[in-house]
Design goal:
Blueprint: H1 9-38, H2 41-54, H3 58-80, H4 84-118, H5 124-164
């Protein structure tokens, strides 16, 4: 019989959230950014700025920040309740998301979004930022995608191993 312990809840929620966030980032990496790179720069810039303004929806905020909270809770659970390989996997799962998604978003993606939004339209400076967004922002988004997917996999492993008693 499956026994779901209360301290498994953060890992379960973080596994789901990490997978969802990985899917969102994957969509950007696999077709949104390539499509924006195929249209005229001014159109791509306008759409990217619109995306950056509209991303702040309740559903995305719950997915991203809710997962962040569950990853923090999972790190605490790993440090206080879980021992051995399962605890280490849970700690790493939370840490990978916190560093690879939240940290990279704050350090790289958001500053590039803000620079693009703040650039004077139609200037060479705006085009330089757009080129950086198409290359560097997309690279860091690939990293965020991989981090979220790895986090989801590790959280799933934690739950499977905890269930089997390993």
């Amino acid at each position: 019989m499956f026994r779901f312990r209360p301290f498994d809840i953060p890992a379960f929620a973080a596994a789901l959230g990490s997978g969802l966030v990985a899917g969102i980032f994957f969509a950007f990496s696999s077709f949104v950014m390539p499509a924006l790179g195929q249209v005229a720069a001014n159109r791509g810039i306008d759409v990217m700025n619109a995306l950056n303004r509209t991303v702040y929806t309740p559903s995305f905020m719950v997915a991203f920040w809710g997962t962040t909270v569950m990853c923090l809770a999972s790190v605490v659970v790993a440090l206080t309740r879980r021992q051995g390989p399962i605890g280490m996997a849970q700690f790493c799962a939370g840490g990978v998301f916190l560093i690879g998604c939240v940290g990279i978003t704050a350090a790289f993606n958001v500053p590039m979004n803000e620079a693009l939004a703040g650039a004077a339209p139609g200037t060479q400076h705006e085009l330089q930022i757009w080129t950086q967004v198409l290359e560097d922002w997309t690279f860091w988004n690939h990293v965020r995608t991989g981090a979220a997917l790895l986090s989801a996999c590790l959280f799933t492993l934690v739950l499977v191993c905890a269930r089997s008693g390993r």
